């Protein structure tokens, strides 16, 4: 198996293909430009409200084409598969489905990448095991609606079975290394490469701060409320995923502010057009264990669109070390910095430098790094 062309990469994803696009979706698409990829959805129960559109019980799986060289495998399992006993049955059914799918595709050499806090490596499927940890899953278990104990056990199993372990941030890599004797490679999130549009001009920018991404407990509501109270115009694009009643109430009030417009979730092609009209992108994440381990995709996406960024102080921001990201440590400084970014005259050359910086951190670059890890074979 070479770094340029492994026979197939099996991506055992943390979300379904139709779900909000995250690290697993973007990495899979980038990998598919260089090798064949089999995306494995989380299992689907054969009965109950979550079973709509399930594969036929026999053979119990279905393969769909998503993109050139990117296929999706859906597997049907018994209801209640989050419970320990049934979970083991579901794991076996998923492994069998992967084996049969690879046989149908005439693939006999694979790399298996787990990007999920719930799934384990299919041990009966041959090939190298890569664990790519996208967040501090244990710290974020409640946020994701998962059992912290179950997430811990799954992570311990996967760390033990992994040939290669990677993590999206240096902080998370250090955390994992303290829990294991294995080395952990830092493989951060990336962004889509964006070029300057020939028709781009200063008049396309609007005096608006943009917040893109899922709206949940990761956000620091003190910062957002201060921004709303300041009168700065804010546009928000993304779905709500909040669970905590206090956060939900504060989000309600923020989104109902007269100077805040919530656009909801939108297709990625339209999203980029909207982002490019903002004056500044904001990443106001709370300072907690989960966020310190994270690598917010939105920060690089803002830079790829040519925007300056105002972000709270997280290890991933310090790792990027970009002059185009203003790091703030209080709501008052946050508001001042956002106002200053909106009031600063737009310069074509600055926007291009931000894009040039972001283009060093594309998903294609991350895919090349991951394939090199696969070629290396072991931690």
Strand count, sense and barrel status of the largest sheet are: 9 strands, mixed
Terminal Cα separation, in Å? 17 Å
Task: Give the overall silhouette.
Answer: globular
Task: Count up the helices.
Answer: 13
| Order of SSEs | EHEEEEHEEHEHEEHEHEHEHHEHEHHH
Segments where pLDDT lies below 50 for 5+ residues?
Answer: none
Description of the structure:
The chain has 379 residues and is of the alpha/beta class. The strands form two sheets. Strands 1, 2, 3, 4, 5, 6, 7, 8 and 9 form a nine-stranded mixed beta sheet that branches. The protein has a six-stranded parallel beta sheet with strand order 12-11-10-13-14-15, with helices on both faces. It starts with 7 loop residues before the first strand and ends with a helix. It is globular, with a radius of gyration of 21 Å. Strand 8, helix 4 and strand 9 form a beta-alpha-beta unit. 36% of the residues lie in helices and 18% in strands.
List its salient traits.
379 residues; alpha/beta; 9-stranded mixed sheet; 6-stranded parallel sheet; 36% helix; globular
Which secondary structure elements does this structure contain, and how are they paired or packed?
Layout: E1 8-12, H1 23-31, E2 37-40, E3 44-45, E4 61-67, E5 70-77, H2 84-104, E6 110-114, E7 128-133, H3 148-161, E8 164-167, H4 170-178, E9 185-186, E10 209-212, H5 221-230, E11 234-237, H6 245-255, E12 260-264, H7 268-275, E13 280-283, H8 289-292, H9 297-304, E14 309-312, H10 315-320, E15 325-328, H11 331-343, H12 348-358, H13 363-376
Parallel strand pairs: 1-2, 1-6, 2-5, 3-5, 6-7, 7-8, 8-9, 10-11, 10-13, 11-12, 13-14, 14-15
Antiparallel strand pairs: 4-5
Helix pairs in contact: 1-13, 5-6, 5-11, 9-12
């Amino acid at each position: 198996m070479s770094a340029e062309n492994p026979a197939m990469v099996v991506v055992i994803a943390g979300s379904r293909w139709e779900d909000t696009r995250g690290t697993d979706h973007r990495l899979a698409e980038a990998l598919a430009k260089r090798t064949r990829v089999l995306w494995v959805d989380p299992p689907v129960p054969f009965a109950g409200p979550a079973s709509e559109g399930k594969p036929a019980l026999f053979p119990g799986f279905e393969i769909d084409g998503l993109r050139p060289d990117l296929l999706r495998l859906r597997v049907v399992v018994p209801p209640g598969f989050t419970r320990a006993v049934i979970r083991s049955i579901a794991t076996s059914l998923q492994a069998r489905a992967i084996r049969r799918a690879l046989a149908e595709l005439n693939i006999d050499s694979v790399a298996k990448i787990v990007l999920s806090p719930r799934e384990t490596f299919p041990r009966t499927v041959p090939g190298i095991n890569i664990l790519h940890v996208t967040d501090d899953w244990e710290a974020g278990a409640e946020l994701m609606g998962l059992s912290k104990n179950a997430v811990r056990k799954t992570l311990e199993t996967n760390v033990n079975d992994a040939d290669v372990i990677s993590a999206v941030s240096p902080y998370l890599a250090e955390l994992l290394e303290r829990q294991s004797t294995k080395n952990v490679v830092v493989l951060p999130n990336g962004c889509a490469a964006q070029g300057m549009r020939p028709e781009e001009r200063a008049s396309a920018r609007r005096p608006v701060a943009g917040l893109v991404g899922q709206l949940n407990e990761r956000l620091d509501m003190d910062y957002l409320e201060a921004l709303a109270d300041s009168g700065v115009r804010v546009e928000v694009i993304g779905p709500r995923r909040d669970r905590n009643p206090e956060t939900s109430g504060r989000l309600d009030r923020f989104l109902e502010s007269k100077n805040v417009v919530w656009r909801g979730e939108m297709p990625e092609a339209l999203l980029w057009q909207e982002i490019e009209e903002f004056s500044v992108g904001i990443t106001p994440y709370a300072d907690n264990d989960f966020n310190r381990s994270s690598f917010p995709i939105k920060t690089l996406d803002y830079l790829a669109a040519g925007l300056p960024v105002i972000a709270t102080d997280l290890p991933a921001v310090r790792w990027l070390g970009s002059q185009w990201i203003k790091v703030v440590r209080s709501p008052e400084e946050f508001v001042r910095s956002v106002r200053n970014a909106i009031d600063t005259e737009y310069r074509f050359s600055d926007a291009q430098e931000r894009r040039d910086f972001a283009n060093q951190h594309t998903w294609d670059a991350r895919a090349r790094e991951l394939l090199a890890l696969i070629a290396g074979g072991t931690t």
